[in-house]
Amino acid sequence: xxxxxxxxxxxxxxxxxxxxxxxxxxxxxxxxxxxxxxxxxxxxxxxxxxxxxxxxxxxxxxxxxxxxxxxxxxxxxxxxxxxxxxxxxxxxxxxxxxxxxxxxxxxxxxxxxxxxxxxxxxxxxxxxxxxxxxxxxxxxxxxxxxxxxxxxxxxxxxxxxxxxxxxxxxxxxxxxxxxxxxxxxxxxxxxxxxxxx
Length: 197
Hints:
single chain, alpha/beta, TIM Barrel, 5 strands
């Protein structure tokens, strides 16, 4: 097995974590003279509801969680966002999704590990305050969306983000949550949304 690149972080999709494999990979990299960080962080992708349900156990063994929101939404709501017949049911602000994100963040906090979000939610400026209010530490957005997300974050007050998250966690309507998130984002950074309906 040859490795030409050693990443700063390793994300494991599997629920079981085998540190023996991790040790073997380090030995292999050393043998091949491939430089790598000896303090490499190991984390888990949280992409399915069952991973959220065991996040407390996973957090004891890891340094971070990366919430894959595209798959988490798809598998939680049983909706394929690429299928035009049911794509309208794909709702990032569905209360179940937001509660799963919050449960993941809470499990991480108990073990002092951080939580990142990747997927379309992470790059949506409208949802940025909501994700930060839920306690997410890092957002991973595609390059064209980094500037708008940063622009909004620089103007956001965390008490506003937390209030939005509290509202969302107690709300039963995806539409109401989205509407509240849109209002906050537009109030904070109106220039981002000037030419959008």
